[in-house]
């Protein structure tokens, strides 16, 4: 099974869903419309493509990319053919919500909770969406790039020491 075969099968079944396709380091990477992501993943699992293993779900934040600030990345693996695929979907920060995959992959439960915990992305239909690694009353999502990396008020450090 080749990346071209998988891409052709997806575009044949969902002609409007794929926004872009690339193969960094040989890994087929597709950007999928947010409304279609669960349908595409369901197709990859239940068709003859046999992507039965959900390796990972994670979030990403591009604060300068207006309208596409928040993303969810899915990694799937066809273990019989040893083929992997990466699916990405992006959305505005104000509407950071995608469909849950818990009904397709039970292992998605904790991955979605972790992504919610760190990025604030809501998963519609998740059975128990609450924080698991941070304190419940933390008040922010730590992996969002919404704070300065350094304290600009410090006077006790010299940037020349750090090569700046």
Automatic annotation (TrEMBL):
Q: Which InterPro entries match?
A: NADH_quin_OxRdtase_su_C/D-like, NADH_UbQ_OxRdtase_30kDa_su, NADH_UbQ_OxRdtase_CS
Entry keyword annotation includes Chaperone: no
Q: Per UniProt, which keywords does this protein have?
A: NAD, Quinone, Translocase, Transport
Can you say what this protein is called?
NADH-quinone oxidoreductase
**Which family does the entry's similarity section mention?**
Belongs to the complex I 30 kDa subunit family.
Known PANTHER family for this protein? NADH DEHYDROGENASE [UBIQUINONE] IRON-SULFUR PROTEIN 3, MITOCHONDRIAL (PTHR10884:SF14), NADH DEHYDROGENASE UBIQUINONE IRON-SULFUR PROTEIN 3 (PTHR10884)
Q: What does this protein do?
A: NDH-1 shuttles electrons from NADH, via FMN and iron-sulfur (Fe-S) centers, to quinones in the respiratory chain.
Q: Which organism is it from?
A: Bergeyella cardium
NADH:ubiquinone oxidoreductase 30kDa subunit domain residues are: 31-151
EC identifiers of the protein:
7.1.1.-
An example molecular function term from Gene Ontology annotations: NADH dehydrogenase (ubiquinone) activity
- Which reaction(s) does the protein catalyse, per the Swiss-Prot or TrEMBL entry? a quinone + NADH + 5 H(+)(in) = a quinol + NAD(+) + 4 H(+)(out)
